[in-house]
Specification:
This protein has 36 helices and 16 strands. The chain is an alpha/beta fold.
Length: 865
């Protein structure tokens, strides 16, 4: 090596004889991540310092060269070498030199040993503080955030990364911004937020393009390609990857080539080009094996395992899965390991090794549980459960069918189902509920959204939207309302206790959608049964057909009867009692079960009382909770009144259901029947009721009311549902230019409010829809109100029509006033619509209203004579 370096020095230009200048230029390039250009400068400086027997500076230059050579060398060998060097006198006593070595070792160990990486960066941060080196303080903090994410502590990770991106910007640390914006983008993709991820990744690419001498951001290209694939923009992703792969091959960067080939393999996989995908994955495995990159080797093995499984070669798939788990265990990565253990478990079960499969699933469950303990906000908990949902579903199916242990299968399922709400109920709300004060970032978002509602300019709206998205990324970590690591594991309800809480006329019907089979778990006070249903591939198209027919007000007889036959086969029908508590899964969260039809085309609502719950445990906790003191006031109602009346804009107009954040603006027409709806309900509720109409129907007036004092709260307003970013979903209130509020009571605000309402009614468009979060359920306005403290919520599954809604809601409150329980009152109101307008009245006008949560309760309205 010395000969080679000396030759390099001899052939260098005259300026190369000044090693200090070489080192200065190389360091500048290294700080910018341009290791390709920095590498020969480090090598020349190293050779010169060696020839001068300057051990310290030769080692300093060597560490820079090794960083440049990192992708073409063995990570394990590099880590071993650095560990030995760190115990030698030069690195033990020279703080700057030691920091340089630790910063390299920390990056290496992230690919091989997460625990070691945490130690590296913790010491590096301490050294950076002792040197008052602000850039390395920022970077070490950011890398500790990456370690926290890998270990499943998403709250700590998000907080650190957001802080570091801001610090890097202030310090003009372009490479730091690019690196951590990229990792933030990767995390957002992982948590199914590709639109927000693109914003971060595009910002990173813009910084790279506008900063002289910055290195080629391969990781950013990979991250952006992943986001584009999530958005079904595969051709755009392929162009990006081809450009990045050309660069990786030209610069001989092994890790980058393997990462990019892995992305190509996934694209081929999705396009059902099995042989091409196999070739890509095998290349990845070969590169990773040669460079000793266990993280990439593990991922390649599991991609191959999935491919072989699809081709029917279970034995080959199993071997790949075992090899993959072995590789990932070397890294010690708890976030990916549960997924890989589940794959190996599934393949073991396919070979009849059910006991071994059960142990692997149990280990995966424990790893997920350890991560859930570390999250500290509802959003992060929900997203983690969504990411891990398939593990729970597969484990449930194994326990339910082999060895047919239904209590154990129920426990496994309920570990994930409605977890956020369950934890909220168990913890009696987060400590800050009811005392929330908007942060500067939240206030900034409110100001931007006020401007957004007033702007008619598409470019201006686009600028405002980009700024809102940037600020919302900063909000993500601030959602950590309280640390919860000290809490005991929140157990799901025991099946015996659940059955004892059920009344003789009640059945819980809990669905699990999967392929090749789905399942229906039926629970009554006397029995518990499992029925196998058609797979998701058969049920999903029927759901789509039913919802399309409802939307167009067409006959639903065919899809409604076929879906009913799938979900309620004869064996299931025989166990149904009068009252059904439906625990849906996946797309079934969008189905109005009351509109399903039996073979005689009779609606289910004609024979049963239907309500919904995110999980059996949530239903139990809401139903058996000690009665709260009756709220001091019976009713608060609000009706939307537009400050600009737009004639001919009925409630069902398309503008009422589209997202607010489109570039054309959002127009909200008047709701002429809404005031009468609210006034009728207030009259039934009686003395002490409060109504906010006209100029009082604003966000500021609403927030000035003592919301925790009301027994029932009713909103006859517009709403926007944003499935891409559920925190943006909102009730749209009258806009008041003189107020500091934006007129959007959004999910992020609602869930931090303290309520004690027995009933919240969202008589608005699309309030029951939102982003499907796997076994966690739906992230939407309904869940926000439950997190705030509501006992039950009435919501809608589609845009609702103004007049028929007012008619149905008036009847609903009349029945509540007569003493009917909540679920029965809603059913009778729907039946009144069918009786008044005929049995062929399209379900669009009545079936979309659903009751979720505690369904037995009676409101203490005064009885009418």
């Amino acid at each position: 090596i010395t000969v080679v370096l000396a030759a390099a020095a001899a052939g260098a230009p005259a300026r190369a004889q000044n090693p200090a200048q070489l080192l200065k230029e190389a360091d500048h390039l290294g700080v910018l991540g341009n290791w390709e250009k920095a590498r020969p400068l480090f090598a020349q400086a190293e050779a010169i310092y060696q020839s001068r027997h300057d051990v310290r500076n030769a080692l300093y230059a060597k560490l820079g060269r090794l960083h440049a050579d990192l992708e073409s060398s063995s990570y394990v060998d590099m880590s071993d070498y650095l560990s030995q060097e760190l115990s030698t006198p030069p690195l033990e006593h020279d703080t700057r030199l030691r920091l340089r070595a630790l910063s390299l070792k920390g990056i290496v160990d992230l690919n091989t040993n997460t625990a070691a990486a945490q130690q590296d960066w913790t010491e590096a941060l301490r050294l950076a503080w002792s040197l008052n080196d602000r850039i390395w303080q920022e970077r070490a903090t950011g890398w500790l955030g990456i370690v926290a994410f890998i270990e499943g502590n998403t709250a700590d990770a998000a907080r650190k990364i957001a802080e570091v991106i801001h610090s890097a910007s202030l310090l003009h640390d372009a490479e730091g911004e690019i690196t951590f914006l990229t990792y933030l983008g990767d995390g957002l993709v992982e948590y199914n937020r590709p639109e927000q991820a693109l914003a971060s990744l595009n910002e990173a690419l813009q910084i790279a393009e506008s900063t002289p001498d910055v290195g080629f951001p391969i990781r950013t290209y990979i991250g952006k390609a992943s986001a584009l694939v999530k958005l079904h923009r595969e051709s755009d992703a392929r162009i990006l990857l081809e450009h990045a792969l050309d660069h990786a091959r030209q610069t001989h960067t092994s890790g980058a080539q393997a990462d990019l080939l892995l992305q190509f393999g996934q694209l081929e996989d999705q396009g059902h080009h099995s042989q091409a995908a196999q070739n890509d994955y095998e290349q990845v495995a070969a590169i990773a094996q040669k460079a000793r990159l266990p993280r990439l080797l593990g991922e390649a093995m599991f991609r191959l395992a999935s491919l072989y499984e699809n081709l029917g070669d279970i034995r080959a798939a199993g071997k790949c899965a075992s090899r993959g788990v072995e590789a990932v265990r070397q890294v010690g990565e708890p976030y990916e390991l549960p997924h890989y253990l589940a794959i190996e478990a599934r393949l073991e079960a396919a070979q009849g090794k059910c006991e071994e499969a059960g142990k692997l699933y149990a280990e995966a469950d424990d790893l997920v549980e350890a991560m859930l303990v570390n999250v500290s906000s509802p959003g992060q908990e929900s997203e983690l459960i969504d990411a891990m949902s398939e593990i729970y579903v597969q484990h449930f199916a194994l326990a339910a069918t082999r060895p047919h242990n239904l209590p154990e299968a129920f426990r496994i399922l309920e570990e994930a189902r409605g977890r956020v709400m369950r934890d909220q109920l168990r913890e009696h709300r987060f400590s800050t509920a009811g005392s929330h004060r908007p942060s500067p970032v939240e206030l900034g978002i409110t100001r931007l959204q006020r401007a957004l509602r007033q702007s008619d300019s598409a470019p201006e709206r686009q600028r405002l939207l980009q700024k809102i998205e940037e600020d919302e990324i900063q909000l993500w970590p601030s959602e950590s309302e309280s640390p919860r690591a000290h809490l005991l594991k929140a157990k799901p309800i025991n099946i015996t206790a659940l059955r004892s809480a059920l009344r003789p006329n009640e059945t819980i019907v809990e669905y699990v959608l999967a392929d090749p089979k789905s399942y229906c778990l039926l629970i009554t006070g006397e029995t518990m049964a499992l029925e196998t249903l058609p797979g998701l591939h058969e049920i999903s198209p029927l759901v789509d057909r039913l919802l399309t027919a409802i939307e167009h007000k067409d006959s639903i007889a065919e899809p409604a009867t076929k879906l009913d036959a799938c979900l309620f086969p004869k064996a299931v029908r025989g166990l149904l009692k009068k009252r059904l508590i439906i625990v849906p899964d996946g797309k079934l969260n969008l189905v109005p079960f009351g509109a399903l039809m039996d073979q005689n085309q009779h609606y289910l609502i004609g024979s049963h009382v239907v309500s919904y719950s995110p999980s059996s445990t949530v239903w139990y906790l809401l139903t058996t909770a000690p009665p709260s003191p009756i709220a001091g006031r019976p009713f608060l109602g609000m009706a939307y009144s537009s400050s600009v009346v737009q004639s001919g804009a009925p409630r069902q107009a398309r503008s009422t259901s589209r997202g607010l954040y489109d570039l054309k603006g959002a127009m909200f027409g008047p709701l002429p029947y809404a005031p009468d709806e609210v006034l009728s309900a207030a009259k039934i509720a009686g003395k002490g009721s409060v109504v906010l109409l006209g100029k009082q129907a604003t966000e500021s007036h609403l927030k000035s009311e003592p919301l925790s004092d009301f027994q029932a709260i009713h909103f006859a307003v517009h709403a926007v549902a944003d499935a891409a970013d559920p925190d943006r979903s909102a009730l749209v209130l009258r806009y008041d230019p003189s107020s500091k509020e934006d007129g959007l009571w959004q999910v992020r605000e609602i869930r931090k409010t303290r309520l004690q309402a027995e009933l919240v009614t969202l008589s608005a468009c699309d309030t029951g829809v939102g982003r499907l979060e796997g076994e966690e359920g739906v992230e939407n306005l309904v869940r926000a109100f439950f997190l705030a403290g509501a006992q039950s919520v009435v919501s809608t599954l589609w845009p609702v029509e103004d007049q028929s809604t007012a008619t149905l809601m008036t009847a609903f409150y009349q029945y509540l006033g007569e003493g009917l329980d909540k679920a029965m009152a809603l059913r009778e109101a729907k039946l009144d619509i069918l009786a008044k307008y005929g049995p062929r009245t399209p379900p669009y006008y009545w079936a979309g209203f659903t009751l979720t949560g505690e369904e037995r309760g009676h409101l203490s309205f005064p009885r009418r004579n």
